[in-house]
């Protein structure tokens, strides 16, 4: 029977595309599995991981179960070693058409965002990009809205549906939209890396993971591009997304950028964090682009976010305002950064920064 | 050879963002700009034109005022423009939009040595979906996140960005490439270009123009043809007022550290 | 009467504004501080067709109109008056007289290269002993045995001189009797190239403002130029010079207008940020009223400038309009920039902010291409008051 994406009743189960690079599963996949587990529980269905590669180690496949997967479909093929749109799309779509999952989550990496839309177009279904929150259960969704929106949840009508409610920021975080795909399956979503929490690894479930090898029909004529080379950036990139502590600098350092960045590094060191920056600082060439936090940079969910000399343009706020504790230091007491700050100090970062470093160092020493 | 570039007019979110009472974006109240990534795509095409003399066609789906943006692209050096505009197309999600744009590109005509360009993503939606989906609908190979493009005959070599580096990919025309704004710096319009841009051809493709294409069907375009729709949209809450510390001296930071300690933040 | 820009003019305005903000503004402080002629900017403007805005395409121009040219100088001068005057002198004082008075051969030879920016243009009228008073001219041009012209003399305060390739030079070619039978100098105009033998650029002036513009002396010592370099008819030089200055005044009026507008923009931004006595200074009524007055005055100047430009475009007489536009715009620019420095307070006096530069730049608009006093003479003469 031909595949029909609108026969919604025929689809069952939650899938997560577990992206590997150089044979190693990316951490985003664990985040997605942990989230997928909750959805699968709410629906009472199976959670499956999907891995495409050349010869992925069985340990890696089993480990996916440690983060919640009941089953792992894996495809080993020479032509799946490195990502190409054509090969991956073909294998994924063939598999989806065969097994019919109702939900399919993909990490919103540069590769996930190439693969997702192509698959959705081929399968004739909807895809919601770059999601930051997922729900199937309406009550849970309402509970989510209570803490994250201005909606009067108790006095608002919600359509009672088990459809996947995919929430994502729009217009750089000015608005949030929850998207559904009611009439087609699978309900596809790319999920922003670093947003979902990774559940603790569970050895027991890992041991019980069912591995199912999928044979793929694929040959070189399916692939219409030639991969010439893959190069990693020489410099180690800053892992802002996964950082618990981020100390960011903004335009306030411009009177002495070198010292300003130094102050941030020192503070980040004592807090065990990394240095971020506002767009202005990156655009001025004072720090590399991978340090940029904000709409066009990285989105961070730090436990502690320190903003030194950052005024708080909306684009910057979009990338950091969900951090748990925000400490802002700015000369201008009416800077918008103070509207989102948990603690604010009106003062010169060149003076307050080093004092804060010293006070925290002293505190840590006293605890040690 | 020709380059077809898909562009979108977007609200300028870098300035003040106007929100209506119901929480949706007040697009009418906001200035519009050509989407940054799309502008890089236009520039990429114009550079190929500079080198080969090929034709550059820009195409946009949007309301009639998007003509203004297309005229600007003509003033930069594009040769022809197509505005895809019809009430039937309104409310399209990315899937439906790519159906319509794919039909429009087919109508313009894709020849053996043509390249289709898109921006990676638009700043109003940030989905990055329309480019790859047009490629799928046209059965063309795609390369997204292009940060460098070289064209030699029918071979296009693209440096495609990854989070931690890049891959170099060779692809044959016809193909679709999505560009990131870092690819280049778009040129300005020229004075002469502006004086000519209203003489250059700008065609409107409406529902009538495209309806015979198999991609265009009531079930595949507009609100009805969109697999996804909005369940709820809302504004994030204004965070509860934080605490402004008094002073900016040693005592202040020590007090802060003790609060952080009390709350188990550090 | 229609006070709306055409759709093309709207687009041009956007182009000029974007270009000025992105390419010119970041360099403005350095151009001033280092007395640096912005050569790279001139090349970029050439590529965009900004050096031949209102000349027809067949001569390499962009085919736009005089008002568009005015808007270009205005937008450039909002952020850098030096860049504004480079375009103004090149366009109004060199391209325009060739376009309006040149033979077909002269136009074909000079205009495309000038409009495309391969050559930069300048205009030499002023001498140590003669400014707008043409009868004081000392530079002479004499025909030699081949019929070629031999020029001797010097010009001073010539804008663009250090970087220009083509110069319109006004010189005395003989003596004529006026209507009342009095002897007067016969004055003619010539096209001189930088590479002509006997031609050299002399001392570079150190100026109070527009410090990046190249203002130099021109020296002609037995400078021989071919006979086909006579611009217009022999003896028509004074008329050509005066007509050229009429056009030039529209350019300088645009520069002054841009300066006033730019100063107001900067001041509005600053007064919204700067806090004194617990209030943003934009909240003080003095600031509000000052800016209201300045804006109203500047708008009035703008319409005088635009109206003069439209008259020139439509080939109507515009001598008095250009004089009024320049008089009002220049005095507005001087007044507005001075008041803006005051609103900036101490910071306005420092070079950290552009305001002191704009005030210095504004002063020249009351002086060159006819002082404000000369403009008043032109206006009163046109009113028949004598």
Write structural notes for this entry.
The complex is a heterotrimer of chains A (368), B (266) and C (386). By secondary structure, chain A is α/β, with parallel strands linked by helices. Chain A has 2 domains: 215 residues, 3-Layer(aba) Sandwich (Rossmann fold); 123 residues, 3-Layer(aba) Sandwich (Rossmann fold), CATH 3.40.50.1220. Chain A is built from 11 helices and 18 strands. In chain A, the strands form 4 sheets. In chain A, strands 7-11-6-1-4-5-12 form a 7-stranded parallel β-sheet, sandwiched between helices. In chain A, α3 packs across α4. The termini of chain A are far apart. Chain B is of the alpha/beta class and 266 residues long. In chain B, 29% of the residues lie in helices and 27% in strands. In chain B, the strands form 2 sheets. Chain B has a 9-stranded mixed β-sheet, with helices on both faces. Chain B has a two-stranded antiparallel ribbon with strand order 2-3. In chain B, β8 and β9 form a beta hairpin. In chain B, α2 packs across α5 and α3 packs across α4. Helices cover 52% and strands 17% of the residues of chain C. Chain C is built from 11 helices and 10 strands. The two termini of chain C are 33 Å apart. In chain C, α1 packs parallel to α3. Chain C is α+β, with helices and mostly antiparallel strands. In chain C, β2 and β3 form a beta hairpin. Classes of the chains: A alpha/beta (368), B alpha/beta (266), C alpha+beta (386). Chains in contact: A-B, B-C.
What is the SS-derived class of chain A? alpha/beta
Unreliably modeled segments of chain A: none
Which stretches of chain C of 5+ consecutive residues score pLDDT under 50? Answer: none
CATH class of the largest domain in chain A: Alpha Beta
The radius of gyration over CA of chain A amounts to 23 Å
The amount of beta strand of chain A, in percent, is: 15-25%
Task: Classify the helix fraction of chain A into a percent range.
Answer: 25-40%
């Amino acid at each position: 029977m031909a595949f029909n994406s609108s026969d919604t009743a025929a689809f069952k189960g939650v899938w997560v595309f577990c992206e590997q690079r150089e044979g190693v599963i990316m951490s985003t996949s664990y985040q997605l599995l942990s989230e997928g587990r909750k959805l699968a529980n709410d629906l009472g269905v199976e959670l499956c991981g999907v891995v495409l590669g050349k010869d992925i180690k069985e340990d890696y496949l089993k480990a996916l179960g440690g983060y919640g997967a009941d089953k792992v479909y894996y495809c080993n093929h020479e032509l799946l070693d490195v990502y190409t749109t054509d090969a991956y799309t073909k294998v994924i779509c063939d598999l989806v058409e065969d097994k019919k999952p109702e939900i399919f989550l993909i990490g919103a990496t540069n590769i996930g965002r190439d693969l997702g839309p192509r698959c959705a177009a081929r399968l004739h279904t909807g895809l919601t990009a770059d999601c930051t929150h997922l729900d199937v259960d309406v009550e849970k969704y309402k509970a989510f809205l209570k803490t994250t929106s201005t909606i009067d949840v108790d006095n608002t009508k919600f359509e009672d549906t088990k459809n996947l409610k995919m929430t994502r920021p729009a217009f750089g975080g000015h608005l949030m939209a929850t998207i559904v795909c009611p009439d087609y399956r699978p309900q596809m979503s790319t999920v922003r890396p670093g947003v979902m929490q990774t559940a603790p690894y569970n050895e027991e479930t890992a041991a019980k993971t069912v591995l199912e090898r999928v044979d793929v029909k694929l040959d070189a004529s399916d692939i219409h591009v030639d991969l010439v080379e893959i190069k990693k950036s020489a410099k180690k990139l800053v892992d802002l997304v996964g950082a618990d502590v981020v100390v960011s600098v903004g335009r306030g350092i411009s009177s002495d950028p070198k010292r300003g960045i130094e102050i941030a590094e020192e503070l980040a060191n004592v807090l065990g964090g990394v240095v971020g920056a506002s767009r202005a600082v990156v655009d001025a060439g004072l720090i590399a682009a991978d340090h940029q936090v904000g709409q066009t940079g990285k989105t961070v969910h730090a436990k502690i976010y320190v903003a030194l000399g950052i005024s708080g343009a909306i684009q910057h706020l979009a990338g950091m305002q969900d951090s748990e504790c925000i400490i802002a230091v700015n000369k201008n007491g009416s800077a918008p950064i103070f509207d989102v700050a948990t603690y604010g100090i009106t003062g010169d970062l060149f003076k307050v920064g080093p004092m804060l470093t010293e006070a925290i160092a002293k505190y840590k020493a006293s605890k040690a | 050879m020709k380059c077809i570039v898909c562009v979108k007019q977007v609200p300028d979110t870098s300035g003040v963002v106007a929100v209506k009472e119901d929480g949706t974006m007040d697009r009418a109240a906001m200035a519009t700009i050509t989407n940054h990534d799309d502008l890089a795509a236009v520039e990429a095409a114009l550079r190929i034109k500079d080198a080969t003399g090929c034709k550059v066609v820009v195409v946009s789906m949007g309301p009639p005022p998007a003509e203004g943006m297309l005229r600007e692209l003509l003033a930069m050096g594009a040769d022809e423009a197509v505005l895809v505009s019809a009430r039937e197309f309104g409310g399209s999600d990315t899937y439906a939009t790519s159906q319509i744009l794919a039909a429009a590109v087919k109508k313009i005509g894709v020849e053996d040595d043509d390249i289709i360009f898109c921006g990676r993503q638009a700043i109003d939606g940030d989905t990055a979906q329309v480019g790859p989906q047009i490629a799928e609908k046209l059965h063309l190979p795609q390369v997204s996140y292009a940060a460098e493009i070289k064209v030699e005959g029918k071979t296009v070599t693209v440096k495609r960005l990854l989070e931690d580096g890049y891959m170099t990919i060779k692809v044959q025309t016809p193909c679709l490439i999505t560009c990131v704004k870092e690819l280049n710096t778009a040129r300005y319009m020229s004075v002469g270009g502006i004086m000519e841009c209203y003489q250059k051809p700008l065609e409107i493709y409406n529902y009538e123009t495209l309806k015979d294409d198999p991609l265009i069907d009531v079930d595949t375009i507009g609100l009805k043809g969109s697999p996804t729709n909005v369940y709820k949209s809302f504004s994030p809450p204004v965070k509860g007022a934080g605490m402004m510390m008094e002073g900016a001296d040693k005592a202040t930071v020590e007090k802060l550290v003790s609060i952080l300690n009390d709350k188990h933040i550090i | 009467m229609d006070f709306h820009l055409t759709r093309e003019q709207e687009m041009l305005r956007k182009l000029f504004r974007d270009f000025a903000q992105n390419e010119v503004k970041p360099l403005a402080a350095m151009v001033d501080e280092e007395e640096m002629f912005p050569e790279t900017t001139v090349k970029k403007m050439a590529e965009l067709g900004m050096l031949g805005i209102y000349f027809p395409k067949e001569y390499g121009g962009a085919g736009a109109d005089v008002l568009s040219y005015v808007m270009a100088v205005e937008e450039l001068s909002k952020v850098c008056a030096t860049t504004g005057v480079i375009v103004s002198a090149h366009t109004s004082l060199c391209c325009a007289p060739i376009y309006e008075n040149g033979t077909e051969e002269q136009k074909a030879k000079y205009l495309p290269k000038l409009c495309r920016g391969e050559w930069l243009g300048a205009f030499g009228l002023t001498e140590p002993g003669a400014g707008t008073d043409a009868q004081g001219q000392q530079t002479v041009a004499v025909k030699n045995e081949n019929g070629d012209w031999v020029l001797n003399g010097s010009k001073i305060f010539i804008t663009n001189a250090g970087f220009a390739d083509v110069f319109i030079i006004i010189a005395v070619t003989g003596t004529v009797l006026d209507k009342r039978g009095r002897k007067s100098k016969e004055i003619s105009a010539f096209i001189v190239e930088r590479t002509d033998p006997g031609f050299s650029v002399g001392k570079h002036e150190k100026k109070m403002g527009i410090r990046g513009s190249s203002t130099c002396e021109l020296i002609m010592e037995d400078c021989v130029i071919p006979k086909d370099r006579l611009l217009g008819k022999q003896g028509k030089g004074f008329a050509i010079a005066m007509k050229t200055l009429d056009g030039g005044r529209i350019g300088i009026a645009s520069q002054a207008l841009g300066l006033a507008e730019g100063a107001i923009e900067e001041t509005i931004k600053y007064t919204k940020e700067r806090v004194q006595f617990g209030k943003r200074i934009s909240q003080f009524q003095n600031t509000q009223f000052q800016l209201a007055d300045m804006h109203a005055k500047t708008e009035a100047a703008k319409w005088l400038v635009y109206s003069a430009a439209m008259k020139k475009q439509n080939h109507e007489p515009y001598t008095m309009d250009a004089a009024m536009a320049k008089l009002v715009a220049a005095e507005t620019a001087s007044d507005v920039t001075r008041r803006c420095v005051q609103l900036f307070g101490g910071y306005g006096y420092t070079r950290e902010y552009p305001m002191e530069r704009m005030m210095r730049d504004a002063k020249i608009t009351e002086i060159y291409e006819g002082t404000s006093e000369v403009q008043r003479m032109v206006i009163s003469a046109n009113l028949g008051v004598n």
